[in-house]
Amino acid sequence: MKAASGFFSAASAVALSAALTVPGALVAQFAVVSVAQAAVVSSIEVRGNQRVDAQTIREYLTIKPGRNFSAADIDESVKALFSTGLFSDVSVNQVGGTLVVQVSEYQVVNQVLFQGNKKIKDAQLTLTVQLKPRATFSPDQMEADAEAIRQAYSVIGRDDATVNARTIDLGDNRVNVVFEINEGGRTKIKNVNFVGNQAFSARRLSDVVSTKKSTVLSFVLRDDIYAEDRLKADEEALRRFYFNRGYADFQVVSAFGELDEATNEYTVTFTIDEGQRYTFSDITVDSTLPDVPGETLLPLVETKPGDVYNAKNIEDSIIKLTENLAGMGYAFAQVTPRGDRNFENRTISVTYAIDQGAKAYVERIEIRGNTRTRDYVIRREFEVSEGDAFNQVLIQRAKRRLEALGFFETVEVSTAPGSEADQVVLVVDLVEKSTGEFSIGAGYTTGGESPGAQLEGSISEKNFLGRGQFIKLSAGGGADTRNYQLSFTEPYFLGRRIAAGFDVYYRTRNYDQYDSTTTGGTIRFGLPITENLTTQLAYNLSQEEYNLDDSCTDISVPAYCGVSLAIVDAVQNSPWLKSSVSAGLVYNTIDNMQSPHSGIYAAAILEVAGLGGDAQFVKGTARATYYQTLSEELDVVGLVSGGAGHVYAWDNDGLRVFDHFQSNDRMIRGFKYGGIGPYDADGDNDHLGGTTYFNASVETQFPMPIVPESLGLRGALFADAATLYGNDISMAGVDVQGAGMEWRASVGAGLIWASPFGPIRVDYAIPVVKQDQDEVQEFNFGMSTRF
Question: What 3 state SS string does 561-626 have?
């Protein structure tokens, strides 16, 4: 080594290793001083810097003028300079008594530009990439951003999108970063296959998973996008499906998608092992808590001997036991189910072991991944907060609530050790999804109050401003109708689990001899009593205005203009103001509201009108529907439904004709809207409605043979029965007939389509029991749900 020359001829292996491990370092070229021979410089000269001040660079060095330095000092100095992230290259050399530090600065990003993108807007891509204007440019980061853009296109179903990243040198060490995007075509899913399934058909299992085969409607539904996260969620959905139907040994052996690059289509395959189907045998509760015998808790358990094994019933039993024990003062009690399989008779005995459990507290709740949804919207779904006793049951319940919000693609809740042995950190990892929706739909209905062509459009957002609020603006109508409505719901009113909201609406209807205009609004509240039972309260205010047709002039003639005088009287005395309060209960255990296979949906509402206004009545209605799968293999579902209603006036003026119940296709199919019940024998036999009704229906639903399940078509066979009777109209010129309790019945077949615009149903019903004045309508087509 020639100390006089000022050059160090050997490179330190340690220093080289350090340079190579610095992110973004291209080559770290520097000379080192032999450990055996220290050196001293009188000054430090910085070269190559354009934006970073020379004195700032000197401050990062551990080498100082007038002091001895060695290879270790150069090593540390280089590490310090690279760690700033400002330099792509650093070299250190001694020239005489001067230490020369040569640096190459990273360029600065002037603009980030996107070209060729249409499906994803610039604003969204800007959030996707890490390179930003006025930030340091890094070639590695540019490539990472290009990959992030490709992943963003993969999420929307465009796996063959390509991204070419390049820079434009603007001089003065500034560059524009350009991402040239070829969006390609939509990557479709050719098939969703199931291997190993015997108990359930592939058609039935395809209803369980969210990954769907591509169809002509996939561009609207967006359910044919292949994603690893979605596949994992589908695996969990399959496990829950089988576990809740007796298959305790079920496993997903593999789940993967194979891309055919030639056609840009995936084939998704789920390979499963169903195992055996079990039933429950002995059910016991084993408690080690003082003064809490296990047998006293047994009535809380929902698993019963002889029932088909059901994991959800076990979970519900754990929740009930845990909540009951917490109410008894055992906040840390642990309920652990222990199953004992009997492979010969295919039964499982379950023992719920109850122990005191270790004391643990929630130190904090850490939420990650929510870029839009506000923290408090997520935290309020947890019934535990910082400082509370750690309760795994309540945490799993919160996870289910978060999933049910519909704001997130995935929800994962894990734990991490806290600062103390008895402290736990809850980590909530979320992947958000789009919650806004614009929809437009058209249809044609032959039944209901306003038959004919219908068009409806709406804009809705169920996570408004990230606050978890729901808002919807809709408009629609047909040849004789117009409907406008604005709805808003705050799910946590005053910080409590109370849903509060309002609806305002404006509706017009044109009938044969008159038209109506209704303007009104509702203020409503919903309070959950249990997970399945909700109570609802509302105040309703509306004004109804009616106008006779211009051709109707002589009201002295019976059958005036072909309309009953009861209707004429109501029309001429308008506008009518209705002020009412209503209270209701809703019980819902339906497994899937879009494609129900089991459960009960029941609702009962009591409305009292007369808090001001012109209407003075009490009206009560109730309806319940029970779904049950009749054949898992064939995916045949049966349902039984029934309903009833009664209205009476609580003043001496009686009911208006418009306050009576009118028949519709939800009451009985095969008859026109308002086509059964009491009628005016002096008014062209106009049906006036009734004060009381009962109805019942049985139906079976099944997949359509031959038709691909991806189209979402199902068939139905049904039988309906109903009666509408009683009438509270008493006026001169009105002869009410048919007010007795005569039953009607019909049988028919239907076609159900789970369309992107909601369920569309076509029914053909033939009345088999009817009365002489009933108005028949065998064919009915409309957009509706049976709930």
Answer: HHCCHHHHHHHHCCCEEEEEEEEEEEEECCCCCCCCCCEEEEEEEEEEEEEEECCCEEEEEEEEEE
Topology (CATH level 3) of domain 188-273: Ubiquitin-like (UB roll) (3.10.20)
* Separation of alpha carbons 255 and 516, rounded Å: 57
Which three-class secondary structure state does DSSP give residue 290?
coil
79-97: pLDDT as tens digits? 888 888 778 788 888 888 8
- Assign domain 13-105 to its CATH superfamily: membrane protein fhac (3.10.20.310)
Q: According to the 3-state scheme, what is the secondary structure of 336-384? A: EEEEEEECCCCEEEEEEEEECCCCCEEEEEEEECCCCCCHHHHHCCCCC
Among 521, 518, 517, CA closest to 541: 521
Indicate whether 344 pLDDT > 70. yes
Domain 279-355: CATH superfamily, name plus number? membrane protein fhac (3.10.20.310)
Band of residue 263 on the pLDDT scale cut at 50, 70, 90 = confident
- Opening angle at CA 496, ends 493 and 500, nearest 5: 25
Query: Is omega for the bond preceding 575 within 30 degrees of 0, making it cis?
Result: yes
Examine the pLDDT at 138 and tell me if it is beyond 80: yes
The CATH superfamily label for domain 113-182 reads: membrane protein fhac (3.10.20.310)
Take residue 216 and report the two structure tokens written for it: 């002509």
The answer on pLDDT for 742 being more than 90 is yes
201-222 pLDDT tens trace:
888 898 888 888 877 666 555 6
Q: Does domain 487-783 have CATH number 2.40.160.50?
A: yes
Q: Which residue has the tokens 């980061």?
A: 141
Report the alpha-carbon distance of residue 439 to residue 756 in Å, rounded: 9
Q: Indicate the helix (H) or strand (E) that contains 394.
A: helix 392-405
Torsion angle in degrees (nearest 10) through CA of 747, 751, 755, 757 = -40
Amino acid at 379: R
Q: What is the DSSP string of 65-108?
A: TTSEE-HHHHHHHHHHHHHTT-EEEEEEEEETTEEEEEEEEPPE
